[in-house]
## 1
Amino acid sequence: MDYTMRYYFEKKPKKLENIYDQVLTRLSKKQALLEKEAPPAPVITNNLWKGSESFAVPESGTKNPGWFTVPIKDTGNFILSFTAVVFPDDQSLNPKVTVFFWHNDSSRTEFRINWPGNAFPKDGQMHNYSLTKRNTDPIITHISGWLLDSDPKEGRWVKHAKIVNIALRRVGEK
């Protein structure tokens, strides 16, 4: 490739410019077709998430697990979605997201219904996540959890991760 580019650049620059224009035209046509076929990104109008749509550590605290709590009023299916990256130098043990429905009962104890969790790979790549859970208990008052939970670890250590595009929505029937 280098040899061919050098040849055309030095010996036939007009031909190289012509080839470049043809390639650009083809790529532009393909891009237009893809944009026409791809459905538009959905606009989340019923987002229950009222906090910041992004969270990063160590910027927000070296070990901050990203606690959240969102009040809810209805039963139904709930979806927590976000994009996350955990960097290879993250020092936490088993980074994951932890989510649960909860309410306080009259004995002042907390009642929880856990959602299925997701472990995060420490690969430095952005991954999209979507966690879903149905709430059938009308007594439930909140969805809470930790965006960047991890197993306990002693000593000095630092998390290194970023979570963006956080959305929580209720879908379907009551």
Note: Helices lie at 2-11, 13-37.
## 2
Amino acid sequence: MGLLTGPASLTRFNIVALPPELDFEMARFMEIQPGSEVRERSGFVPIEPEAPYEVGTQRYAFRVRIDKLSPDPTAVGERLKQLIRSEIELTGAEFVGPKKRKRLKELAEEELIVKSTPRSKIIECCIDGQILHVASTAKAYLGIVLELLRKIGVAAEIKAPWIDREDPDIESDLIMVREPGQSVLGCRFLKALMGDPEVMIEGEAGNVRLVTSEARVTLTGAVLPELHRYVEQGAEILSAKVVTAATGFRFDALSYKLNGLRIETDRHDHWTELLDERLEKIDAAWELLDRKYEELAAEILS
């Protein structure tokens, strides 16, 4: 799910520091060499081989590649059994204790990791003016992207309307805010959207996550009757599948992130033209949400 193909999962950031020139080569990706003790490596790669990073006025398109070297868990389990058997035959012991078992497991992993091939994760990103788009909502991957950008002089902070407006935060007995940028205001925003004619909670093939005083609840299918009942009883909406006139996506209210944003585009001769159209439609989805938050702010903050 990236910026260029398929449904997009997106996190948006405000650029707070940007040098006059960006040198992505300073933190370029370098492969893990066979026999190396390095287990994980990340860095920048261009969207296409040899493609420029700068693709327009104040627009940079790039990918972050993350390679991780880890042995197959099933193979580790099988090798561990062999090592335990050999240990029992060698020592004559009836069993292997937990400390020895842990050391044998580490040995099995070290043996197998030499033969393992790194697994790669690619995250597409774009700096567009003062906005950073990252095609991921995973906290771990977002952290890697931001760390790499800091190495080339770029600093970014999560973008959400309550941050841009400097709205006072509110508390909820049901929700614990754990990550930067998260706010209960996002949940109240999603609640305020119930019945909205422009951004509607999917009612027939819906998917909603709520938190009540007793448990977390997931609703699927025709969710609206049960959703209204839970909300009336004081539940908070954490996320929901929503639809607009142009598209549909899953909205993570607490973090103001989009998952599975459907983007229909025309055929293009070059990937930069495709990126232009997809970014235009991505921006339109964000702008609609931002506008609705502005319209509903009084209700959300009351």
Note: The mean pLDDT is 92.
## 3
Amino acid sequence: MLEHTDTGAVGVVLNRADEPAAVLAEEFDLADLAAWEDLLAPPARIFVGGPVGDDSLIAVAEGHGRSEEAWGELTHSLGTVDLSMTPTEVADRLDRVRIFRGYAGWAPGQLEAELRAGAWMVFDAHDDDLFTDRPADLWRTVVRRQGGRLTWIADAPDDLSAN
């Protein structure tokens, strides 16, 4: 979840790696996208951030000496970054970057209603979840980390009819 306010919510899907960054440089008219490519956390791919706005890119990074104009703080160590700038304009040092094509969005009150209906499991995130080198395993890893009976859910087959 990147932002959750009275006007709605915006987030990105963390576990769906897609295209190499070089494939999108021309499509998004970002001459300096190659400068960001070396900073991408493994696997060095652009991720499918969600079904909304697939004509936009959102980047989240971990860094130090950040520029206030180019950094949107999410946590004490993570923030969204402006890809139209060079990495050195964004921060003195960027350690890891993940770029998402598109995002997930909810209208005002929609996410709250989904939570009340039990449509989501909500757990505390770790910064490393964002940068996992095994994104396809992330959901199971996070659920397993909760312990107890939830670990059973993490081990369920993707197709429950195969159980």
Note: Residues 3-156 form a domain with the VC0467-like fold (CATH 3.40.1740.10).
